[in-house]
Every structure is written in structure tokens, then in C-alpha cells.
Amino acid sequence: MSERHTDGSAGDANYGLIGLGYTNYRQPDPHIADFIRRSLGDARTVLNVGAGAGSYEPVDREVTAVEPSASMRAQRPAHLPVAIDAVAEKLPFPDQSFDASMATFSVHQWSDLEAGLAEMRRVTRGPVVILSCDPDALSLCWLNEYAPQMIAVEARRYPSMGAISNALGGQVSILSVPIPLQCIDGFGEAYYGRPERILEPGARLANSAWSFVDASVGERFVAELGRDLADGTWDARYGFLRTQPFFEGSLRLIVAQPESQS
Fold this sequence. Notes:
Strand content: 5-15%
Shape: globular
CATH class: Alpha Beta
Strand order of the largest sheet: 2-1-3-4-8-5
Oligomer: single chain
Low-confidence stretches: 1-10, 12-19
Number of strands: 8
């Protein structure tokens, strides 16, 4: 596995830096949360791997959270359980400890995808639920026109749907999750109809891909998007998105039932 960052982050992104103010822009969106809640079924005990600040943790279940970043653990609200300092690739739990397990916007941070998913399957009796992005669909959003370098970085970091499915095994379903216009979870595509918002430095800081490209990429993005918003070019091309209720982008929910249920 890769070495941890100074705040304990074990993935490729340093959340000691980019995690500052993360929850100002990344809140669990109710529409997306409903997809996850339904996929967890009637599970009473749930493991959340790479739990971060607690987005999408169901408050009506008994949740155990795992998060290696100290800065992200510190941002968890008081009503959520304290997260355990551990990584996906080495979960400190006996076999079949939980009814279900989940990971949201986390698998692309792991140093060993297969090991992490195998660990989730090992400690889980029922469904393993993964919220991630399909790298093959990231170019569907207008962001690809303005920041192709950032999108290319995202596409390289996100594992393919096939890689996740094959590693989990069993009976796997892949659901496309439509993104609502007023999505309050500020990943890149969440701003598909609100381009002004992603001009804010904090919005980009809360998306780890921006930390993997040169600062000049972000500067050029702000300059070009700001110009096109000011002179009407963006709206001429994409203005219809400002009132489009949902965007079918790259967001996916992978749900894997154990082999015995397939």
C-alpha cells in the first residue's frame, strides 16, 4: 500500500489539505441518499468504508465508520459515530461482522482496489454497496470542454465498472443515478446546471481531481468559464441545463449480493 499522508490519508489525495472546508460543499444529497438506503435493504448493521465526514451514512441503522484521514474524521458531526482509523485494504473486523457495507466516492482513493473490495465482502453478510463514477461517462458533462485535463485525471483514477463488479463477485447490479439540478453534494457534475458555483475555489478544492493537475489548469478554467458566462457563450450552448431537473452523467451505484444469494 502507499504511504499515508501526514493526516493519515492512505489514498492518492491529501485530505489534510483538500479536506479543509470539505463539508461546506459536500453534503449528502437526499435523492442520492435514497438510492443507497434502498440498496441497503433491511440491514441493521452497516459498515461505511472511507466514511469521510459521514455523507450518506444512514442514521436509522447501526453504523460503523472507517476513515484513515484525521482531518476528515474531525469534520464528522456529533450525531454520527466516531470513525475508526483504518483502511479498506485491512479492515479490523471478523468475517461476516455486518449485515451490509457501503463506500461512497471512496474506491478511487484506495491503493489496492481488489484487496479493499475483498475485505468488504469478507466482513459483510449481505449487500456491498458502492457509489462511484463510471470513468467512461465522465466526458458527458460540459466540464470536459473547459477542463479536459482534470476530467482525464478523474477517468484514470476511477476504476471501471467491470473492475469493481469482478472484484466483488456474486450477483452485481449497476444502477445509473440521475443527478438532481440542486444537488447539494458538490462533486463536479453536481454543478451541471449551476456553472457559477464551480468558479468558487472551495468548490474545486472539495473535488480531489483538481489537486492532481497544475494550478494553471484551474486558473485557465476560471478565466475561460468566467468569460463565457459573462458574454453568454456558455448559456448559448448549455443554458437548457439550468432548468433540466436531472442529469444522466457518470454517477453509478454498484450493488453486490453474496454468491449464496445469486
